Please model this.
Amino acid sequence: KKKKLILQYKRETKLEEQFTKNQVLLATAESRLAKARKQYDVMLESKQLELSRHLKELSQRNDQKYEAEKLEIINMEKEKGQKQRQTNYAKTCTYLKIT
Model:
């Protein structure tokens, strides 16, 4: 009976040691995971800032392009109007000369 108790004690001691080792391994793994999460979050934030800057640049370029096209259209319409007025004026002058 004494041998059984000694064996049982040894088994329990071994199990406790293994449990302690497993707890240390778990704590180490959790620490590494937390560190990896922080690194990922920093990287993600950096990428988001980079993307935000890029989108802002694209938006500004599109706005500039839109404004340039708008000015071009306005100028073309002004030219059309001026040509139309000149044509109408010339027709009026010709009509007045004829009559």
